[in-house]
Design brief:
Blueprint lengths: L3 H15 L4 H11 L1 H5 L14 E6 L5 E6 L3 E3 L6 E6 L5 E8 L12 H11 L3 E13 L5 E11 L4 E12 L2 E9 L4 H8 L2 E2 L1
């Protein structure tokens, strides 16, 4: 169980990191970190509750999970196999949630390879080029479960623009759950969306 002092220290670290990047981004980052507290606990099995000013998507089929994003987000057709939800925030961050059957998960592909898997799929679809994994590390979600946090930088072929994709990946019962948020640069809003993933 996380101590109050440690929680306060993490709050201060986030505040210093986002200082000068805008009040909206700061509020979103803090809300994402404190989502378990807003829900009443950080125990798996309890649906996440979105704070005021935010909306949520809940995947009710197995594996059950939820993510949080800013209110006013426009839902987009998922458009690709495995994608269960896609949206565009008022600030222009596009994000996708996917659930893919993955027999022998963790054996055929360790979770730390999920960013390379994402890049390979995107490259094969002709969406982009020049994919580079610039961040790849284990994290603990707000429900206490393990996941992997990555960043993939690449170039959008159609728009000719640079993209920084923030990514959280986790295995659950032979399925790979991925939350990816795409923006021109790494933003607290994109990070907050992917890091809000909570399993029930």
């Amino acid at each position: 169980m996380e101590t109050r002092d440690r929680r306060r220290g993490r709050y201060c670290a986030v505040q210093m990191h986002v200082r000068g990047q805008g009040q909206r981004a700061f509020i979103f980052a803090i809300a994402a970190w404190l989502l378990p507290l807003a829900a009443g606990s950080a125990v798996a099995g309890e649906p996440a509750v979105a704070p005021e000013g935010f909306s949520s998507y809940r995947h009710e089929r197995f594996p059950a999970f939820s993510i949080m994003f800013p209110a006013g987000t426009r839902e987009r057709p998922p458009g690709a196999p495995g994608k269960v939800f896609s949206g565009s925030t008022p600030e222009g961050v596009d994000f996708d949630v996917s659930v893919t059957d993955f027999p022998f998960a963790g054996i055929l592909m360790p979770i730390e390879k999920a960013a390379e898997y994402f890049a390979g799929l995107a490259a094969a679809s002709g969406t982009g080029s020049g994919f580079e994994v610039t961040r790849n590390e284990p994290i603990t979600l707000g429900d206490g479960s393990s996941a992997h946090r990555s960043e993939v930088r690449w170039r959008d072929v159609e728009r000719g623009a640079a993209v920084a994709t923030q990514l959280v990946s986790a295995y659950r019962g032979g399925r790979l759950v991925m939350v990816a948020a795409h923006a021109a640069e790494a933003t607290e809003e994109a990070s907050g969306i992917v890091e809000s993933l909570r399993f029930e």
